[in-house]
Design brief:
This protein is an alpha/beta fold. It is about 55% helix and about 10% strand. The chain has 16 helices and 11 strands. A 5-stranded parallel β-sheet has the order 6-7-5-10-11, with helices on both faces. A 4-stranded parallel β-sheet has the order 2-1-3-4, covered by helices on one side. Helix 6 crosses helix 9, helix 11 packs across helix 15 and helix 14 packs antiparallel against helix 15. The radius of gyration is 25 Å and the shape is elongated.
């Protein structure tokens, strides 16, 4: 019988040796059960061919043609990535909705002698659990926001807080974006569904009785939207504010964004829309600093004329409960550690 999972915790606690996603590579790339490997029953082109045959020819012929393709592909997987598994291996197999692809794949594995099982409802049943967790009910966790102007090292502080036993979730890492005008990193952002899977699993891994520290963000990180339950919890969460001088922040930002500054053409293109917000003179000054290689002066000007005013305006629109303020005298490794020590003490006192 297919295995039914009632909650995301149940999936996280599964006892299968390997989770196998037999959907096409394109489906797998959009999102998949965490930890799953992709062994396609049908390739992208084969899936499209069978889908067209269902519509234009007949369901019988499509199933017959698809079965032949699946058999050949499973044979290739048996000779390839599955060749070294012993008789005690227990895989868990799923496809789009727990139908023919996963059933056929698992049946072949079972005939060999492996205790293969399938997920009832396939990926769609898993996706419903993620959607319900993030969209249908309030989060069971107590969120604490780490706030502060651009360049105060909030993301780096999160890592130091983890080292101190504080639960944290790095939204920017999950979204593959720094959450700012210059936020794109050298990797594509995940699909929205893949981000939500990673986010849900991050929360499931946290103890609801303990606070979870998240960096203050807008409701959108690059092109990724924060789910309603997460955004609502963040809006209502108490905050710890980090402060640092403009000079300190500029020096930190110049190092943190060094990768962005290597492509001046791309960086200049990102600044162009700011002409309609901050004016031509301001953007021309930013670009002049970039051309001269003065990244620190560029960062300072960007913060003083754009980021800081934007942050101040956003904070003025809503009052927030403050757990405390922390001032970072430096943002080198030791300075970040000292800042994390102070923040951890504030959070622990608030419990």
């Amino acid at each position: 019988m297919p295995v039914k999972f009632a909650t995301l915790h149940d999936i996280a606690a599964h006892n299968a040796d390997t989770i196998i996603d037999v959907r096409s590579p394109a489906e797998f790339a959009q999102d998949h059960v965490p930890g799953a490997i992709n062994l396609p029953a049908l390739s992208n082109d084969q899936r499209a061919e069978i889908g067209t045959m269902y519509v234009r020819d007949s369901a019988f012929r499509a199933r017959k043609r698809g079965a032949a393709m699946v058999a050949r592909n499973v044979a290739d997987h048996l000779d390839g990535s599955l060749r070294n598994h012993d008789g005690g291996w227990q895989p868990l197999v799923y496809c789009w909705r727990g139908g023919q692809r996963s059933g056929s794949f698992a049946s072949i594995l079972q005939q060999i002698g492996w205790r293969a099982e399938t997920i009832a409802g396939g990926y769609q049943s898993y996706r419903r659990l993620v959607h319900d967790y993030l969209y249908e009910a309030p989060l069971p966790h107590r969120i604490v926001l780490l706030d502060g102007n651009t360049g105060t090292g909030k993301t780096a502080v999160l890592a130091h807080l983890r080292d101190r036993g504080i639960q944290t979730i790095d939204l920017e890492a999950l979204a593959a974006h720094r959450g700012s005008l210059l936020g794109a990193i050298n990797a594509p952002q995940p699909a929205q569904k893949a981000f939500e899977t990673a986010l849900a699993q991050a929360f499931v891994a946290c103890d609801p009785s303990m606070p979870v520290v998240i960096e203050a963000e807008s409701s959108k990180i690059g092109r990724i939207n924060l789910p309603p339950s997460v955004w609502s919890a963040m809006c209502a969460a108490p905050r710890v504010m980090i402060a640092a001088s403009v000079a300190t922040r500029a020096a930190y930002l110049a190092k943190a964004y060094a990768d962005v500054s290597t492509d001046l053409t791309a960086l200049s293109d990102r600044l162009q829309p700011m002409r309609y917000i901050r004016g031509h003179a301001v953007v021309d000054a930013w670009q002049a600093a970039l051309v001269s290689g003065d990244l620190q002066n560029f960062a300072a000007s960007l913060m003083e004329t754009h980021y800081d005013p934007a942050y101040d305006k956003a904070r003025a629109l809503q009052e927030h409960q403050l757990l405390g303020h922390v001032t970072a005298e430096t943002l080198d490794f030791d300075g970040l550690r000292r800042t994390a020590d102070q923040i951890a003490a504030l959070i622990n006192r608030a419990e």
